[in-house]
Fold each of these.
Amino acid sequence: MEQEERKKTISVVAPMSGQCAPLFEGEQNGGKLFGITGDGVRIEPGCGAVVAPVTGDLLYFAPTNHAFCVRTSEGFLVHVIVGDGDPDRRGFTRVVRPNEHVTVGEKVIAADLGVLKARGRSAAAAVLLEAKSGIERIEIFEGEVRAGESVVLSAVYGESAAEPKRPAKRNSAGQAAAAQP
């Protein structure tokens, strides 16, 4: 008798407080942003604190300090991109250094929304879970979210499964909990 494969869930929380919506509206299997393929959400922020959306190692910071990537212990890559980055590096301050271990909800960047607005720069955040073999189902949550608390995206995956992703299911972020297998 074959042993059934155990399913796991990764939950990605909001890196900023604000209004959350799907990043790739109308796409059934994610999309591509800056050459990265995956599933994600867009957050119109209400404040400038940017926190780690997952626990893991901080792999990368953009030279303009507006974007970073965290790798979880399971090997998932979660990218956070705030606005479009100011070439003068104004409006974004790093709070942690690359290669540090961060925990979910830990402050990573301070974004000065006033400076960004005055310079005509966007402050909207994109959160992208990079595509990975074995993801079976993605749930994307919509609505008002709180940084470090509200789950905005969850993925169900198997340790060795290589099934294609299923279409995203949309729920309200305020009432969302991580998807259960």
Note: The chain has one helix and 15 strands.
Amino acid sequence: MSISIRQNEVTRHQKALADLQKKHADESKKEASKADEINRIERSITKSTPLSSLRSKQQQITRAMSAVANIQKKKADISKKIANTNGKLHKAQETLSKEEKKERKKIHESEKKREREQLNHQRSITQELRTQYSYNSPVNMMLKRSVKYDAFISHAVK
């Protein structure tokens, strides 16, 4: 797959992880609130509290403790989801890293190939220039100028 797809996957997992952590923090706040409620109710109980009020406060404490247990269960589920999402995020980051490494290697190989082609082109141009220079060298120019004529000169007398 392409790098952009992998980057989107990493971003998606990071967002999901942030959402889960926020939910975990919210549940922790609820748990702390319920614990404060339990403490407040327990402090309101004194030796002079009537029996009917005592039963009512005990029921409130029981409901709050049940709510705390439910909150703790939710937090445990969220923690499990956080761990799973962390694993997926780590895997996605590794995959992205591998894709980026492959892309860098591909670019490097392409660059090396281009450099080799450029060097070969320079060599061929240099060879062509040498060939042209050898044809146009002063010695060759003189040979071209000194044209040999095949002529017959007759010294016949009549």
Note: The two ends are 102 Å apart (CA to CA).
